[in-house]
# Entry
Amino acid sequence: DRSKLPPACDSMIYCHGPLLNTVQMAGLYNDSKTFVDMKIKMSPNITLEHFYDMMSRTDSNPTKADIQEFVNQNFDPEGSEFEDWRPSDWKHNPGFLAKIKDPLLHKWASALNDLWLDLGRKMKEAVKESPDLYSIIYVEHPFIVPGGRFREFYYWDSYWIIKGLLLSEMRTTAKGMVNNLLSIVDRYGFIPNGGRIYYLMRSQPPLLIPMVQLLMEDTDDLEYLREHIHTLDKEFDYWMTNHTIEVNHEGKKLKMAMYMDNSQGPRPESYKEDVDCARHFDTTEKKEELYAELKAAAESGWDFSSRWFILNGTNKGNLTNLKVRSIIPVDLNAILCWNAQLMMEYHTRLQNEEKASYYRRIHDDFMEAIEELLWHEDVGVWLDYSLESSRRRDYFYPSNLSPLWAGSYDKARKDYFVNRVVNYLDKVKMDIFEGGIPTTFEHTGEQWDYPNAWPPLQYIVIMGLANTGHPEAMRYATELATKWVRSNFEVWKQKAAMLEKYDATILGGLGGGGEYVVQTGFGWSNGVVMSLLNRYGDVISAADNFGTAAESGAVYGAGVGAGGVVTALLVVLASLAAGTLGLMVYKRRKDYAGFCNGEVDKLISKKPYTELKSLNGASNQKQR
Ligand SMILES: OC[C@H]1O[C@H](O[C@H]2O[C@H](CO)[C@@H](O)[C@H](O)[C@H]2O)[C@H](O)[C@@H](O)[C@@H]1O
# Structure
């Protein structure tokens, strides 16, 4: 009975109760997250008293204007928790820039280095003194946020942000971010989805242990590792205790990990969207099941995607068909296997023999289970597994390749695995996409679906292939890295901005879909491009020759300078006149409930996969 489960957090302002319900259902703001990020002016109790006064004054039937007035009088705007901060370790010309041969890309990378100044946040002391007035979770050290509506840290985003920070030689900021996460594990026993109390009942892909590895690769500080190893044990235990199940497969019992949810109610930050969607179910129990699926999908980082739809055994459907809790995901298992490997190495270095063998056993079990249940020789890749049908889900996702990145496959048979994976990429015609690797081949209008392409997924596939050292895989990696860098650069030239997601089907195409408009900033996007330029800066050019891409004022600005704005506006107007931008822009859906019922936003059409694949891989890209 899910109605007995705890809410997202105790707060009757930010997580559950009539105040939250009344304000969020009134739809005061374009984005539901705005309200739950606001600061209350007085204590929670006084705020609640004011709310009940307003309700009795209005016979429990307040108008939108009454509710807006209540919010205006009792809340400060979102973002009130931060003070100005300039990272003291920021430097103008970090060493990695010297590796970038193309002068245009070099200048761009330098502008990306400047973006950390815009994305840095430091919390006011007042947050520490009166945490009850805020939804933000207090952390001691300043940090880098993704950007836009994402004004707090995000768990898995932080991995790519820290990669970028280390390339920018911002070691203090990077270490501060890891220290914040460690302190959160000490306080809460795990890392929430993001740094807000309304995220406290779910996590995100577990990358803290790999983040510590990034610090170790940078400074190899064994004392730091010794100091924090117990916290890392705790984080790993959280996943093994709360996120694993036993799967019976061909006479074997395999321990596998999955995303879950153990709270009740809609997501506070998308409250109205979730409640509206739940109208498609007639009982509280069914509504709660939907909320659980929505929250489990958010925990996966892929919110939302046809990857989690099950309808008559297929990946068709809509949000009402979410079945995240019935799917064993390749990426989570690969990442935990990698976590176990790192923990085994850490404990070995710290001479904790018993712990090292404990993690070795877990690592070996994951290796076996991943191969037994998720690897498919005939398809040539790892696939998610449905607990409903006890069958694999044979659909393309970049996460299918995540064991290459996480190293969770038998390296003694590397050629066997890599040859098949390269054939798989050929088979799905990965070369037909001009702008990157799409998230899926399903065109649902959800943001983790076709034709969107996400930075972390590009990184996972590219680095997975590149790190094999296998010539064919490395060639693929270089091609994919080139497309991604060029496409991001194209958008930068037009808009002087980095986006959270892009369009795989168009060089310079913007991402879209889902429940909020595409955000700029953007933490992981910057980290991924920096990493690719660090690795491929000697071979990737902005166009076919170094230094030949068309220049625009925007390229040289750090963020949006006046020149950049003018240039971007001209480009937008010109594209509108040519009717091209219309194809690239996504409109936010107004009627989310309608969408839940299976209505796809017709604006999001673009280049369907079915058409593209008939091009036989010969589109604009070089034939491999
Ligand atoms: O508010 C809706 C959802 O927003 C977040 O998800 C998306 O942004 C995150 C930050 O970049 C990213 O980590 C995630 O993969 C994206 O899907 C948030 O994480 C969700 O929990 C939230 O419901």
Summary: The chain has a mean pLDDT of 91. The CA atoms of residues 435 and 506 lie 5 Å apart. The pocket of LLGJG24Q is lined by residues 33, 146, 150, 154, 156-157, 193-194, 267, 269-270, 298, 301, 303, 500 (CB under 6 Å). The chain has 24 helices and 15 strands.
